[in-house]
Design goal:
alpha/beta, TIM Barrel, three-stranded parallel beta sheet
Length: 385
């Protein structure tokens, strides 16, 4: 690494803490967000990243599955959710989901990432059947399914406790949970951007119960809308406090707000400058998180490459058919092949390592051959498109 040069004097005591391995506090986090010396902030984040992971950058071969975009929440931040009869509303039949999942297996997927809308007419049992069917057909694939918002919604519609919902999810075949729906925890922000969604405290409580039930999860933060720097730092520290308690979070993913096609479309999009800062600050504040992800779908592949020098050590995966960010105006591809992810990582000067969901290296030479492609006469079973 190059030598650290600091032009902002406020960063010097923070740098001393980072180099000594000491924990940063709220004031430190605010100073990192407000410092004009982004390169020094990035240097410190990269120092921590390389101390923990060296030159390795992880990626995985995964398949995103969004079973439905019908949603009762009507969040202002969202371009994905639809009313049941609205143009563009869809709900995939289970058989079509299974076909898409099996296609993912043929492409080498080791993970299904399942997130969807809060559908008013689908029962909790429907989602359990979805998971059981996937696990039966694709027993070797890790099922990462249902955010804390969805878990809380299942609890309401099924009249079960959060603990009972989580146990039923595990019994059906859920292996871990994604990190979406966290947004910004502060009540002021949630009242503006997602007033009818699970509260920030309930998200944290549900994540705690998921970890206690043996389901590890990811965590996210949506930045670049109406939140303040103090509210971002508060969000990160709340995640850090829960991680101290449960050690259940696997990866943190900073997510830039995409305003297109939302009720907040008047808000400017976050800049690349802001993207890199949020990744760097997360790496420095979340000292008990092993992994920080540069989500190429949201950042763009080129910005994700730069983020690998600002604290990120993971580029996410092949994804396939991402809908949530693309409905909000994302211009990236919905799919990047495994070989292209490796190329992007190498071109950024890092060493690519394919991982599974638990960050164990994947050795393709020891995996069974991929199953054959299906017959071309299979018909689509999509409902309500």
């Amino acid at each position: 690494m190059s030598e650290l040069t600091i032009t902002d004097q406020r960063l010097k005591p923070i740098a001393a803490k980072v180099l000594a391995g000491e924990r940063l506090n709220m004031d430190d986090g605010i100073a990192l967000y407000r410092s004009p010396d982004l390169l020094a902030v990035g240097w410190l984040a990269n120092y921590v990243r390389e101390k923990r992971h060296g030159n390795i950058t992880y990626f995985n071969v995964n398949r995103h599955i969004n079973p439905t975009n019908v949603c009762v929440a009507h969040c202002k931040l969202c371009a994905f959710g639809r009313d049941p009869d609205a143009p563009g509303a869809y709900t995939f039949a289970l058989e079509e989901i299974y076909q898409r999942a099996e296609q993912g297996v043929r492409e080498g997927a080791t993970e299904f990432h399942i997130v969807g809308g809060l559908h008013p007419d689908l029962s909790f049992d429907h989602y359990l059947e979805l998971v059981r069917g996937l696990k039966q057909r694709c027993p070797t694939v890790h099922i990462k399914a249902f955010t804390m918002v969805e878990v809380h919604y299942f609890s309401r519609i099924a009249k079960l406790s959060i603990e009972e919902v989580l146990e039923k999810m595990k019994a059906a075949g859920v292996d871990s949970c994604p990190g979406g729906g966290a947004e910004i925890f502060h009540p002021r922000v949630r009242k503006i951007i997602c007033d009818h969604k699970t509260s920030g405290q309930m998200w944290l409580n549900t994540a705690k119960k998921a970890h206690e039930a043996g389901l590890r999860s990811n965590a996210t933060m949506l930045y670049g809308h109406v939140e303040t720097e103090e509210e971002r730092v508060d969000h990160l520290i709340k995640l850090r406090e829960l991680q101290d308690e449960t050690h259940g979070f696997v990866t943190f993913i900073p997510l830039a707000f995409h305003p297109d096609n939302t009720a907040l479309s008047h808000i400017p999009k976050p800049t690349g400058y802001a993207d890199l800062r949020n990744i760097a600050v997360a790496r420095l504040l979340l000292d008990n998180f092993d992994h920080i992800k540069a989500y190429w779908i949201m950042l763009s592949p080129s910005m994700a490459q730069i983020a690998l020098r600002f604290g990120a050590n993971d580029l996410d995966g092949t994804v396939v058919e991402e809908k949530i960010y693309h409905d909000a105006g994302a211009k990236t591809s919905e799919f990047t092949p495994r070989a292209e992810l490796e190329r992007l990582i190498r071109a950024a000067g890092r060493t690519p390592v394919e991982r599974d969901t638990q960050y164990r290296p994947v050795d393709r030479s020891k995996m069974p051959p991929l199953p054959p492609a299906p017959r071309p006469d299979l018909v689509s079973l999509t409902l309500n498109v």
